[in-house]
Amino acid sequence: PCERTDIVIVGGGFGGMNVALALDRRLKRGLRAEVTFISRSNFFLFTPLLVEVAAALVESRHVVNPIRRMLDRVRFIEGTVQTLDPMRRTVGFVDQNGRSRLLSYQHCVLAPGSVAEFFGIHGLAENALTLKTLGDAIRIRNRIIDQLERAVLLSRKERQALLSFVVAGGGLNGIEVAGELHDFVLKALEDYPLIDRREIRMVLIEMLDRLAQEVSPELGAYAQRNLESRGIEVWLRARVTAYESGRVRVHDGREINTEALIWTAGMKPSPLIHRIPIPRTEGRDERLPVNDYLQVRGYDTLWAVGDCALVPDAGGRFHPPTAQHAVRQGKHLARNLVASLMGQKLEPFGYRGIGMLAT
């Protein structure tokens, strides 16, 4: 049996959540439509603070908000979307009881976000730690404490790999992870007097020739000086080629033994979007091409925002996959969606970023 809804929103990140919140407000003001929101988690996660959760600076409960408490009139279902047919206008998903369900819609909003990209590097997917979910942040924190507990029982030579931590990816995210976790480990050492702080080794590996490609070269150089002055090693022009048996290998022959490699060097759009038949002409970019109104190219009832959407900007380029853009896209999409339901004119999306921020 196929259930029906007017609008279905897939994905509960910054993009999808802001579409749902904006539509919820319109429903309160009298919009006549049934809106169904499907997300794998029943909470909204403030991902920019995940590093602080991993470094025990922020409580995990302070970065989540229950979705059901945020919405009054939008129907919420915790489930995993597995199929999408834009021709038949159906979404297939598995609910929390493990049952497959089919939902037919009038309009669909895609905001499933992104997942870690390991580029087929040997051993990464199996052994590396990622920082994308609340579970990831807690896992990293627990892993670090566990390694200190194990290290304190071993000789100096035996514990080198347990006291070495590697972050791969020197973008803003990787810089935050390396800096915050280094501080966290040194602070934790106050409880482990048998471990000398000089035994701690934190290495940040970046494939390109500078850190923080998202900002100016001057800021990238400042970040590098800052990290190095605190004892963090920065390896530039270093491409990870393998991570197995506790050893990170780099293309130029350098190696480091570590029990904790945190991978922040690649993201790709959710695999869900590959099931949509659409020509992708923008080179290697896998995101869904959308028009100025945020409709997926070739479909006027399929919309996309956030990390999975290739949103054109005024300069002939594309909006970066960051939270500040996803928030604005979500709100704008909701306005255009309501206009579409009412047969009104759609407005093109326009936004200029207000800057980048990293702790």
Can you walk me through this structure?
With about 350 residues, this protein is α/β, with parallel strands linked by helices. The chain has helices at about 15-30, 50-55, 65-70, 125, 135-150, 170-190, 215-230, 325-340; strands at about 1-5, 5-10, 35-40, 45, 65, 75-85, 90-95, 100-105, 105-110, 115, 130, 165-170, 200-205, 235, 240-245, 245-250, 255, 260-265, 265-270, 290, 300-305, 310. α1 runs parallel beside α8 (about 325-340). The chain is elongated and about 70 Å long. It starts with a strand and ends in an 18-residue tail after the last helix.
Give me some keywords for this one.
22 strands, 8 helices, eight-stranded mixed β-sheet, alpha/beta, 26% helix, elongated
Mean pLDDT: 95
Question: How many angstroms does the end-to-end distance come to?
Answer: 50 Å
Fraction in helix: 25-40%
- The arrangement of helices and strands along the chain is EEHEEHEHEEEEEHEHEHEHEEEEEEEEEH
Low-confidence stretches: none
Total count of strands: 22
Give the strand content.
Answer: 15-25%
Query: Major sheet, described briefly?
Result: 8 strands, mixed
Return the structural class.
alpha/beta
Order of neighbouring strands in the sheet with most strands: 1-8-7-6-3-2-9-21
Overall geometric form: elongated
Number of helices: 8
**Rg on CA atoms, Å:** 22 Å
